[in-house]
Design brief:
It is built from three helices and 32 strands. By secondary structure, it is mostly beta strands. It folds into two domains: about 60 residues, no CATH class; about 350 residues, Methylamine Dehydrogenase, Chain H, CATH 2.130.10. The strands form eight sheets. It has a four-stranded antiparallel beta sheet. The chain has a four-stranded antiparallel beta sheet with strand order 5-32-31-30, with no helix packed on it. A four-stranded antiparallel beta sheet has the order 6-7-8-9, with no helix packed on it. A hairpin with a 2-residue loop joins strand 10 and strand 11.
């Protein structure tokens, strides 16, 4: 019995010794592996640090740095910036030992070689995300006088500009011609105003009343009874292609569909306005799949929709008649909720034309109604942060503009107003209408767009459309 117990104890001791040896071996192996891995990581980090230190001379030169970037952007999506440059530098052997750079000569643990740097950066476009424009939040007009450049566009004189959106130096222009063969969508490279380049044009058929550019797509408002919404793919700006067109539904099947008059894209939805008709003048389309727009909602405005803007959970409409300025809750775009309706004095003769939103305020502009009545202001600034219980926006300020207010860029304390005063003017006004700058515009101003601090005004005239750039606003 004792012999059997002794044998068992010896067996356990041998097993424990084997286990201990195995654990010891694992520990030794792990320590060696970690040590080797740490050393390799240290060497690689040292080599990369040497490369980065050597690249300082490249990155520190803003001219070389900026010139080496190649941007690819469509205005409403992120920007892909690819940088590539090279320089000569003295590197330690650590860099060479890891194969960086591939060429060089050894001398006292150092080498001189050529370093090439190439990388891409995804730059989120916070200004133009979700279809917003590229206009900066602050415009400072002090210190210097902006320069004005006028460029004649190769667009037939009979082909009037109806809409303009400039994104990252590219101008997207909608037109309406009385000649069926004329294009109605133009894309220009305006980065050199002295020599604007026509990138492409497209004839969608009936003519366009307005457009909204969102990423690599143009959402167009068609002046047609056949289809009112058209989606155009501009992944390749040189070859735009219509990928979808839809017709607004009619309450009365025998009615003629009204022409589209205004359009706005926001967070995967398109808000489409039409002229007054037998069916709702506002429709909402889900364009999560741009090639397959889906009707999501409708609302009876009762008048022609002239302008649409959306921001956050609010959407604003400028129109004709008593519903001149309407505010909607679009938290759920498929179930629009009317929050307020404004009918300022003069609504019987004047029509809403312009809208802009900034920092809790909505700037509203309208035409003169044929002649100017100084008692009926054309510019009004409302507080949109709170809506009174009776469904009204609080009026902050207003002023008379005898030329009408056809487009507005609101950057308090400045309001940039496009008017038809003296044939055409672009004015820098305060909230009380005091002008601090006035720029005469050739022809009849038709549309305004702000792109990174440069204002672009599209005009129509008997000599053909033009685009005026008012440049060098501080950003």
């Amino acid at each position: 019995m004792n012999t059997h117990i002794k044998n068992c104890v010896c067996g356990f001791l041998v097993l424990e010794a084997i286990i201990a040896l195995a654990l010891f071996s694992i520990c030794v192996f792990s320590i060696v592996t970690l040590s080797w891995g740490s050393r390799r990581m240290f060497d690689e980090a040292s080599a990369r640090r040497a490369l980065l230190d050597s690249a300082v001379s490249i990155a520190a030169d803003p001219l070389a740095f900026g010139a080496a970037f190649a941007h690819a952007a469509y205005g409403n999506d992120a920007t892909i910036a690819t940088f590539s440059s090279s320089t000569s530098a003295i590197l330690p052997d650590a860099a060479l030992a890891n194969g960086e750079p591939p060429t060089g000569t050894h001398a006292d643990a150092q080498a001189t070689g050529s370093i090439s740097i190439s990388f891409s950066i995804l730059q989120p476009d916070t200004f133009s995300a979700y279809g917003k424009d590229t206009c900066p939040p602050i415009l400072d007009f002090s210190g210097r006088m902006p320069s004005t450049t006028i460029a004649a566009l190769p667009i037939p004189a009979a082909n009037d500009i109806t809409g303009l959106s400039v994104k990252d130096g590219f101008a997207y222009i909608s037109t309406d011609s009385n000649i069926a063969a004329d294009p109605d969508l133009y894309i220009f490279d305006m980065r050199d105003m002295a020599a604007p380049e026509l990138v492409s044009s497209l004839n969608t058929g009936p003519g366009l009343a307005d457009l909204s550019v969102a990423g690599p797509y143009v959402f167009a408002a068609n002046k047609s009874s056949v289809s009112q919404l058209q989606v155009i793919d501009i992944h390749d700006r040189s070859h735009p292609a219509a990928i979808a067109q839809v017709k607004v539904p009619l309450d009365i099947s025998t009615s003629t569909a009204p022409y589209a008059s205004a359009i706005y894209y926001d967070k995967g939805f398109v808000y489409l306005g039409t002229e007054k008709g037998d069916s709702p003048e506002l429709t909402v389309w889900n364009v999560a799949d741009p090639a397959l727009p889906m009707l999501s909602g409708r609302y009876e405005i009762g008048n022609k929709v002239e302008k649409i803007l959306a921001e956050g959970d609010r959407m604003y409409i400028a129109g004709t008649g008593g519903n001149q300025l309407m505010t909607f809750d679009v938290t759920n775009p498929t179930a629009l909720a009317l929050l307020s309706t404004m009918a300022p004095r003069g609504f019987l003769t004047q029509n809403g034309q312009a809208l802009d939103l900034f920092d809790g305020s909505v700037a509203f502009g309208r035409d003169t109604g044929g002649y100017n009545n100084t008692a009926n202001p054309e510019f009004m600034l409302y507080d949109a942060s709170n809506i009174a219980p009776q469904g009204q926006l609080a009026l902050q300020s207003s002023f008379d503009e005898p030329g009408g207010a056809y487009a507005i860029v609101a950057r308090p304390p400045y309001f940039l107003v496009l008017t038809h005063r003296s044939s055409g003017q672009f004015r820098l006004d305060s909230a009380t209408g005091m002008a601090s700058a006035v720029y005469n515009i050739s022809g009849a101003p038709a549309a305004l767009s702000c792109d990174w601090g440069t204002m672009y005004v599209a005009s129509n005239s008997n000599n053909g459309p033009t685009l005026t750039a008012i440049k060098d606003f501080h950003e």
